[in-house]
What does this fold into?
Amino acid sequence: MSLAQEHPIGRPTRIGGLLSYQAKMRLLPFAYVAPAIALFVILMLYPMLAVLRYSLLDRAITKRDAAFVGLDNYQTTFSDPVFWQAIGHTLYFTVISVVFHLALGLGFALMLNSDRVNPTLRNILRVLYILPWLFTVVIIAIIWRLLLDPEGVVNAVLMSLHIVDYKVEWFSSSSTALHAVTFVNIWAGYPLYMVSLLAGLQGIPRDLYEAASIDGANGWQKFYHVTIPQLAPIMISVALLDFIWTMQVFALVWMTTGGGPIYATEMLSTYTYKLAFSRYQFSQASASAVIILILSMSMTYFYIKHQKAR
Amino acid sequence: MRRSYLNRTKLPTVLIHVGLAIGLVFAVFPILWMFFASLKSNTEIFTLPPQLLPKQFTFVAYLAIFHDSTKLRFFFNSYLVAGAVSVLTVLIGIPAAYAFSRFSFRFKNALNVFIISTQTVPPITLLIPYFGMVVTFGIFNTYFALILTYLVFTLPYAILLLTGYLNTLPRELDEAVLVDGGTSWSALWRVIVPLSVPGVVATAVYTFLLAWNEFLFALTLTKSDDMRTVPIGIELLMGQHAFEWNQMMAMSVLGSLPLLLIYLFAQRYFLAGMTAGSVKA
It folds into this structure.
């Protein structure tokens, strides 16, 4: 707005003389954001309303005049034991992933930021440690399917070390599948934390550490009272975002276990996908999709609140 | 005396190096395994005891892909879709970012919050109505369906990244143009954009990667082999020739190539995009 007021000439131009200069200046920013807004309305707001509507109908998409059935689809969803299993798996997968992402990301960031390591070596390792982040989820899934194949290298190594004594079917045994998928996700996701925390570590003012030294703090105390509080805002915002994204996992599970064996790794997203595109129950799938949306948005509320407070 | 000195200074150094070595194996071994498996014959991949390096390097897996027009088409489709998405995202994102950076207007704050929160909308929630819309508009199984739906998750990023970049350019630049009688539109394209090349490149690069990696929409909104992108192509291979591991690894290497090249040659752009998600509101 300040730009508009500083503009020297306030007379209406030839074209569009109906609007005053002031009014045009007020509308100008909307012209700039209009294409983006139009896309968001068509591809974000409308679909959200549509999915909400579908979830209240009987046989949406497949039937022309689907009847309004109120909350029936939600009731069906909530009374489906597989839905609750999917909630449990998604929660386990998400919480374990976020905790290990944070631990590994922080650990690697601290080691890669340490003065005890040769700077050239540090720079090389920084590049290499980010590599898992570069790979498409589908590719990550099949790399690990090869590694974790019963005949694969992981079993061969573990057997030669006598850690396991038979060929474990990591992705196809119901006792290991969920842990295996979670492990792969941990491998794929820590670099985001590492990169963000490395940037954060480099932004901590040196005098804070010097002041702590003068006060007689040892290494551990400096870490606990300087490093951690300084990194906390970054850790919280990355962890919240990661939590939301991890909760929405689809491709990794789809490509490794497909939600199985039986329902051992069924997640909210695979559960919903199968309802919609294997069983064509779009209405019930929509109810489940709305539940996922509500869960995500309630986490997003905390994320935005935290970002604003930063 | 000597011993305690050692404990105090050498031990942490040793531990850090050991930790870094373990981390390195954890991070890199799976990738090396993929790469070398793509250069093995299919029978050699599962030999015992396992060998990282092929006894006999062979390009059979790559040749099989290069001679298969269906598989080459997957790559063509991915480059086309990701390229179109990144161009369109930048073109729509620049004016929006300019408005956020240079003007104050009604609903600006609400709009900003809205854009940040669109990053977290679950794709699966949008997929069901998208499927309905795409079928209704007759664009099921077309590039257009993918390009259009990808914009919804690339645009929020682009706007956030670009707004951050434009905020670093002084306002005096636009004001100079306005004083000379130019419009803000010409200030944007003649002065601001040319100075924002690094920000625009970072945005285009990251958008390209997001589109290149997308799986769920491509799986559902396309159907025939000639419309499939690389991730779906790999999924199909997995189902059809589950035992041709060397070919799947070769597909994976080729499918990772654009990302690796961008990372190696444009690292700072890549990292800018990577951390853009968690910006301040």
User: Anything to note?
Assistant: Chain A has a mean pLDDT of 88. Residues 21-55 of chain A form the longest helix (35 residues).
